[in-house]
Amino acid sequence: MRLLAARGEEAKILAGGQSLMPMLNLRLARPELLIDINLADQRPPSRTGDLLRLPALTRHRVLLEHDLVRQHSPLLAEAIRHVGNVRVRNRGTIGGSLAHADPTSEIGCCALATQAQVVARGPDGERTVPVSELFAGYWSTTLAESEIITDVLVPVARPRQGWSFLEMVRRTSDFAIVAVAAVVELGEGPGEIAAARVALAGVADRVMLADPGPVGGTADQDLDLAAARIAETLEPASDVHASAAYRRRLARVLVARALRQAAGRATGDAR
Amino acid sequence: MNKRQIVLSVNGTDHEVWVFPSGTLLDVLHDELGLADVRYGCGEGVCGTCTVLLDGDPVNACLTLAVQAVGHPVTTMRGLMGPGEVMHPLQECFLRRGASQCGFCTPGMVLTSLDLVRRTGRPTRDEIRYALVGNLCRCTGYTKILDAIEEYADQ
């Protein structure tokens, strides 16, 4: 941290290296100094009360296989299956992924949908930042230059809560054209929804939460309406992978499917 | 930045090498140690031709710095072979099934699928496909590779 504070933007933190190293190999980044934090922290995932504490250097493979993660954040465990390939998952880390702030990040999507927070440590101490306030645009965060992420805190999944992760890719392990993470919490009455959170990747300069508005209930037409409302608010970019119109259409279809699946899981009737 | 001397354990042998701190494990294995079975493909971790086992787990040698491998045993495909370059049984399955044409992807395919079989015993064909999404082959169409891995897993 002293090195980082002293060298400022000349320095880059090297965590798992599965995004930064390709950028170096392609000469897209030319930092003067790499600070390798691998092995700096070997804590395993743990649970305290309603929070799953994932140390920033937790590798994707651990997220995929660890019992605590599978049990308390099945959304994250499922989404990790779509991240990179086996070699990337053996080295890549959750903190590194969030700090890299890729706008197509599956992990960022899940962190938003689960209302996760990151613990950031800087020269002046520690602070907790909601992931909803972490991303600032393409590959940039609101963290100060001298701050690093030390932990990711994920609220544990609760009863009467359902989840879904869906994405569209041309080939498995590609960057997502559109990815959706959804969490639905049931209300007291039958078919009532207390809260629905939808996070999207691939439709903006960052992964983002989308407001589904008031969702009437778990009926398919209510969920489809919410998906349509979300799609109308999106302003995705066109690029070589997909047009803006296709991305908006895809977002509507995937959000509708994700809400149906999440609502189904919440009511114990997985569809 | 100056070169520094490090010791790498590769295929069971310790090697003293001089490396730049910014040098990748791939460059050291291929260029310094002459291991032609570790190959530069994409440099982005996508193609799988530089796959090596680090502490027994498949990793991208192109995305790992050589200095990061100090104290962590490295295995390349050659390290699977017995004395006198006797082929590993999985390599024999590849040969028998015609799962290797130009051969560029073969070391990565062998190391990745060996790791899969070690972990899961008898993976399904879909599980093999999923494990190999990060290993690209432009010759075989993959079918014979899947056949070879299934034959090995059945042994």
In short:
Chain A is of the alpha+beta class. Chain A has helices at residues 2-7, 20-25, 60-65, 67-72, 74-80, 86-91, 94-100, 106-113, 220-233, 244-266; strands at residues 11-14, 33-36, 46-48, 51-55, 117-122, 125-130, 135-137, 140-141, 148-155, 161-168, 178-186, 193-201, 208-210. The termini of chain A are far apart.
How would you sum up this structure, described in words?
The complex is a heterodimer of chains A (271) and B (155). Chain A has 271 residues and is of the alpha+beta class. Chain A folds into two domains: 2-33 and 45-155, 2-Layer Sandwich (Uridine Diphospho-n-acetylenolpyruvylglucosamine Reductase, domain 3); 161-266, CO dehydrogenase flavoprotein, C-terminal domain (Enolase-like, domain 1), CATH 3.30.390. Chain A contains ten helices and 13 strands. Chain A has helices at 2-7, 20-25, 60-65, 67-72, 74-80, 86-91, 94-100, 106-113, 220-233, 244-266; strands spanning 11-14, 33-36, 46-48, 51-55, 117-122, 125-130, 135-137, 140-141, 148-155, 161-168, 178-186, 193-201, 208-210. In chain A, the strands form four sheets. In chain A, strands 3-4-9-5-6 form a five-stranded antiparallel β-sheet. The termini of chain A are far apart. Chain B folds into two domains: 4-77, Beta-grasp domain (Ubiquitin-like (UB roll), Roll), CATH 3.10.20; 89-154, [2Fe-2S]-binding domain (DNA polymerase, domain 1, Orthogonal Bundle). Chain B contains five helices and five strands. In chain B, strands 4-3-5 form a three-stranded antiparallel β-sheet, with helices on one face. Chain B has a two-stranded antiparallel ribbon with strand order 1-2. In chain B, helix 2 crosses helix 5. Chain B is globular, with a radius of gyration of 16 Å. Classes of the chains: A alpha+beta (271), B alpha+beta (155). The interface between A and B is medium-sized, with 22 and 28 residues.
